[in-house]
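We emphasize that the prediction below concerns an isolated chain of 342 residues; any contacts that depend on oligomerization or on bound cofactors are therefore not represented. The input was used exactly as deposited, without trimming of termini.
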Amino acid sequence: MTALILVAAMVVPLSGYVYVAFAQDSAVAQTAPPSDPWAEEVNPRSEVWREGRQATEGTSVIKGTGANVLMQSGGENFRQIRMGPVATYLPWYLAVMIGAVALFYIISGGGEKLESTSGKRVPRWSGFDIALHWFVAILFLVLAITGLSLLFGRAVLIPLLGPEGFAAWALASKNIHNYGGAFFTVGIVVMIVAWMRYNIPDGTDVKWLLKGGAFGKHLPAGRMNGGEKAWFWVNVGAGIIVCATGIMMINPQIFETRELFQWNLIIHAVVAILWLGASFGHMYMATLGAPGSMDAMTKGHVSSEWAKVHHDLWYDEVKDQEFDAEEGRGTSPGAGASTSSA
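Result of the prediction step, given as a token string:
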């Protein structure tokens, strides 16, 4: 009995420690996080991001299209198109067009060789047409440079100019592009009105194109040949699209959704670059491809030899106006042109 009391005296106090330890283990089991600490705990920032990505409309004191939407998911789709196909393929297109012009120059043996031996000239374009041509042409090049700077500048110009230098150039490019685009639009409209009558296609133009007039063959042609008329209508179509989309981008409030504005920007950029690439062919023909063509848009008249070779049907109509180069006759009034090699 005495031994039993001694054993109980030692065991009973120890049982208190056992109980306390068991109670603590139970409490820890009830409050401890699950094996996966992220299974139930939610990051408030992630929750806000997920809610914002739903593009649901909320409440905003700012009024305007899409002002009540915190995040527009379509913006990521736009970014992928702009930084993907647009930024990848369009520069290659410009490179291919430059390469094609260079290859054509090499294959043709360095351009056409045409000398003026008679010294006779015929009037071709008026002072108004010359001024209009260069007004549009210079603005076209300025807008091309500033537009390409805004489209590809982050990848191309930042390594050259640095972030601060590019920021200053981008701001200047944006302002020049916006204001210059307004004057360019006016020039395009005047060009269409003034020169359309000279660029209505006819059967002679179809034959000129089908028989390879664009590849160095000298075929019968009137005031404007088939290639020049085709270039004029490229200017009309591309000019209307680029100018219209440009005006809409300067006035974004006209769009009902941001997606429409983004697609408008893509169309503007793609058509403008396609237009720029096509212009390389025009520049080549006006300089190296058909020597003497530039005289038409600088002096207003061309050599009789040039007129007979490139526009024989037209020469027959104006040969009575032929004059000697030494007389220094000015430009003829009332002439019109397309922006092709005149």
